[in-house]
Amino acid sequence: MSCRKPDIYLRNLVAGTETKVALANGKYVTAINFDNAATTPPFCSVLKEIDQFSPWYASVHRGKGYKSILCSEQYEYSREVVRKFVNADNRDAIIFTKNTTESINLAAYALAATSGKQVVLSSDMEHLANDLPWRDKFITDYIALTKSGRLSIKDLEEKLKKYQGKVVLVTVTGASNVTGYINPINKIARLAHQYGAKILVDGAQWVPHMPVDMKPYNSPEHIDYLAFSAHKMYAPFGTGVLIGPREIFNNAVPVYQGGGAVGLVSHQLIEWDDPPAKYEAGTPNMMGIVALTAAIRTLNELQLCQVYQHERQLIGYVINGLAAINGIKLYSGGQDGEERVSLISFALEGLHHSQLAEILSQEAGIAVRDGLFCAHPYVTKLLNISAEEIEYYQTHDDKTIPGLTRISLGIYNNCKEIDVFLELMEHIAQYRQYYAKKYEYVLANDRQIRDYPYC
Ligand code: PLP
After folding, report:
1. Does the Cβ of 131 fall within 6 Å of ligand 1?
2. Co-location of 277 and 350 in the same domain
3. Ligand 1 centre and the CA of 204: distance in Å?
4. What is the CATH number of the domain that holds 284?
5. Do 148 and 297 fall into the same domain?
6. Residue 386: which residues within 8 A CB-CB, separation 6 or more?
7. Which domain holds residue 356?
8. Where among 260, 280, 301 does a domain terminate?
9. Is 71 designated active site?
10. Residue 297 lies in a domain
């Protein structure tokens, strides 16, 4: 898996690598997807599995027909595939959801119902999915950042001390969707447990890129709750996962209520099913589960430690290339050897992030992401935007909102694609004024559709 040798094997793992897209000049080029943190293309193995499973598709947990029984068994077996994938405990419920956002919302409701209004420590680094669900249910506080934008473990400990045992949960991301920083989850888990709190990890940008081990219940480094999305691990079709102690879900009334989540119901009494069923009201997303388990199989075959090394090499190549371009500011340390997943955010002095993303798309068919990446507090802190400025943007729409441009890689990206990107970035940096003028329209459009690119 050398970075210098584009590996055709890895390339052929996913669908759509040869898709042609139109450029501003009317020509067509092979699309380059550097927006894998938003969503990944499907593994071909996933599409094959969906195709092969389709003749057997039937209702899950709702019938005595042969196919229905087969689907139900397959669906339940998939929980064990997921359990093994992240080494979850047998006492954990593996709940299938729609995505990470839904998973964390469900966890927040369950915890609020069982623990009262106590303190939840989130962090200044979080995606909004791991910030907003806690705000209206708990007293929330945020672990501060260090100067380089990492989580301050010192601040975490100070906050745990300050709240004197009232912190019910520390909820942090496994890896940032803005800087790519991987958090020291084991250390955070130890600290949280030491002060009587549980830990939830938002695994959306973590689980697809490296081996994750929830560790046994009796380990101080045990991860109590884990959430992740299948569509970020090469398995579209709308599945997410929430893992956590069955006991907690047993004690709380679920947010979504209806068929499939209950035993016998009268107008007087609801007999709830046991979790995970209790948390999966309505007809389950069988095809989403087929996709997820097929993706896990492929990731296991690839070995996530190798995936991590390969992607680490690729992003190192991007970082070195970008760092050498005049006017580029990288928004994470970027030193060789540091723990990070395969994404990096940056700015080019003198060009708006939104223009830069448009230029990359229109001039070379390169898809990147720009804006605040649904991590508004984090990005605004990295950019040193004051509370007054933020309030101005919230109440006025005469200025485009600041932000960054992000490149995020998948296992199938290669150095040839990165070279195309770096070459164009060099050119843009050199002829900034020309590009700023040519893509002036982007800023006017941005002002009109203010809320589109920021999440
Ligand atoms: N958490 C992180 C760190 C993310 O990057 C994302 C999405 O980009 C989410 C949560 C939300 O994931 P989803 O949109 O699949 O719910």
Report:
1. no
2. no
3. 5
4. 3.40.640.10
5. yes
6. none
7. 8-42+303-454
8. 301
9. no
10. yes
Assess whether the C-beta atom of 202 lies below 6 angstroms from ligand 1.
yes
- Tell which of 255, 274, 301 closes a domain: 301
Q: Which atom of ligand 1 is nearest to the CA of 229?
A: 15
| Distance from C-alpha of 393 to C-alpha of 124, rounded to nearest angstrom | 20
Token digits of residue 129: 């999915």
Q: Is the CB of 205 under 6 A from ligand 1?
A: yes
Say how many Å lie between the CA of residue 238 and the centre of ligand 1: 13
Structural domain includes residue 123: yes
What domain count does the chain have? Answer: 2
User: Do 307 and 292 belong to one domain?
Assistant: no
Indicate whether 330 belongs to any domain: yes
Count Cβ neighbours within 10 Å for each residue of 153-186 and write b for 16 or more, e otherwise.
Answer: eebbeebbeebeeebbbbbbbbbbbbbbbbbebe
**Structure tokens belonging to residue 234:** 């090469």
96: part of which helix (H) or strand (E)?
Answer: strand 92-97
CB-CB contact of 238 with 259 (8 Å): no
Instruction: Give me the CATH number covering residue 377.
Output: 3.90.1150.10
Return the ligand 1 atom nearest residue 129 CA: 10
Distance (angstroms) between ligand 1 centre and the Cα of 37 equals 8
pLDDT in tens, the chain (455 residues): 444 445 799 999 999 999 999 999 999 999 999 999 999 999 999 999 999 999 999 999 998 999 999 999 999 999 999 999 999 999 999 999 999 999 999 999 999 998 877 999 999 999 999 999 999 999 999 999 999 999 999 999 999 999 999 999 999 999 999 999 999 999 999 999 999 999 999 999 999 999 999 999 999 999 999 999 999 999 999 999 999 999 999 999 999 999 999 999 999 999 999 999 999 999 999 999 999 999 999 999 999 999 999 999 999 999 999 999 999 999 987 665 678 999 999 999 999 999 999 999 999 999 999 999 999 999 999 999 998 988 888 888 888 889 999 999 999 999 999 999 999 999 999 999 999 999 999 988 776 555 555 56
Residues 357 and 256 in one domain: no
Nearest-CA residue for ligand 1 atom 4 is 204
